Amino acid sequence: MGQHEQGRHxxxxxxxxxxxxxxxxxxxxxxxxxxxxxxQCTGPSLELSFPEAESSFHRALEVARRQKAKSLELRxxxxxxxxxxQQGKKAEAHQLLAPVYHWFTEGFDTKDLxxxxxxLEELS
Length: 124
Fold this sequence. Notes:
Number of helices: 6
Order of helices and strands: HHHHHH
CATH architecture: Alpha Horseshoe
Radius of gyration: 15 Å
Number of strands: 0
Distance between the termini: 32 Å
Largest sheet: none
Number of domains: 1
CATH topology: Serine Threonine Protein Phosphatase 5, Tetratricopeptide repeat
CATH class: Mainly Alpha
């Protein structure tokens, strides 16, 4: 919606709450959203934001894996895979996303798994 500063402020508030309460259920998603917001805020010089966004996506993956939060790991993997796809790293993106997607045995009618399947098809 173009409200990047409000988005950054909301994420900063959420991080402060996580730090204060120790409730880290959505920590991976906060990192992922930071990466997505970074990409949205850049405008025409999008490539300048790639390293910062990639770092946020990697942090999201690390947290999700540590918490064994497969749905959040899938979202983080999709975000990083899309970024790598933009950079021409289709094989790396596929190698990242495929094992996470194939971990699931049900729920294939959910939006996240449908998007992951479509992305994997694009990356093949």
